[in-house]
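Morning run. Coffee first, then this:
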Amino acid sequence: MRSWSAPEVPSLPVTAPPVSLHDTASGERITPTPADGAPARLYVCGITPYDATHLGHAATYVGFDLLHRAWRNAGHDVHFVQNVTDVDDPLLERATKVKVDWVELAERETELFRQDMQALRVLPPQHYVGAVESIPLAVELIEVLDKAGAIYRVETDLYFSVSADPAFGDESGYDRDTMLRFFGERGGDPDREGKRDPLDCVVWRGEREGEPSWPSPFGPGRPGWHIECAAIARHHLGGAFEVQGGGSDLVFPHHEMCAGHAQVAEPGTPFAQVYSHAGMVGYDGEKMSKSRGNLVFVSALRNSDIDPMAIRLALLRHHFRADWEWTDAELFDAVDDLARWRKAVALGAGAEAAPVVTEVLAALADDLDAPRAVAAVDAWVGATLGTEGLADTTDADAAAAVLAVLDAALGLTL
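And here it is:
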């Protein structure tokens, strides 16, 4: 599948510090370190393209774009992979409801997602992989799991036995009651008769009337959601890659199941070194979701002549792991802030730039602390403009240095 175009990103004259991240599995701060000469590897779970990109999606992908940039600024090559779940129940249900071919719907919404990511200056993945095109990878992984004794059949469906992974539950840290609740709420089928354990998840969904299916050694059907990401990540990144990323709603069951599949397929090798999760964005008092009808779409804001950099700046004012609520006032504050920043850099000279460059890079190395980085830029702008328009200038090249770190580290262009 085609990714989106990469923006030009300046190289900085200084090297950023190593990046540490909060790890969901351990609850500790970890500095994932690639092997000598190897790239830093990142997998971020992508969209199911049945609707447009909302600000909850955007906050997640902008958050992990900060990691991509921080690694690059620390001197690492980055191998970034993202999937698109271009066949799944929500997509098929949406296509039926609006009377559109499911392939057409998936292609249209995926293209809109590309446009949104490009407008927000999110660096693209090297491999942008659809579920449909990765079916052979999923089939191959299911066969490996079957040989390991971790697969069983219920009617025409194949299930993964979570008991096959001794580390099952380590990624989320949830107790069984919490797992069962989330499994039922997030696409699982804990009450299905014939399963060995209510938490076992489907890896191959046998053919249903009116649904797309593909041939396989197990009979016609299509892969489950979790096996899709596990297969794509293992194929393109290998085992124990540095960071598995996504929204906090993926902690369980999705990331737990992905880890289980990979760890049974390759015993003794963890799926990822660090599990990093973005917070949820709310609107009108609730988490943004299709079911609640409280979505704010990136494309709608762009089409109403909102500068995409204002959208990105509004997102950056919140730590990527925090839960928070979007307001129109925050967006318009970001529009005003950009105007001030542009006024400051237009002067060319300004307050000394070296401290703000150092602080921005240090903040992002500290668990991607974008609010701290933005505050450093705000302080530089205030010092440069002064209370009556212009402060005493001390650094003739300040604007160029600030513009470079804004772009390279925060993904903002003025």
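The first strand starts at residue 21 and ends at 22. Good start to the day.
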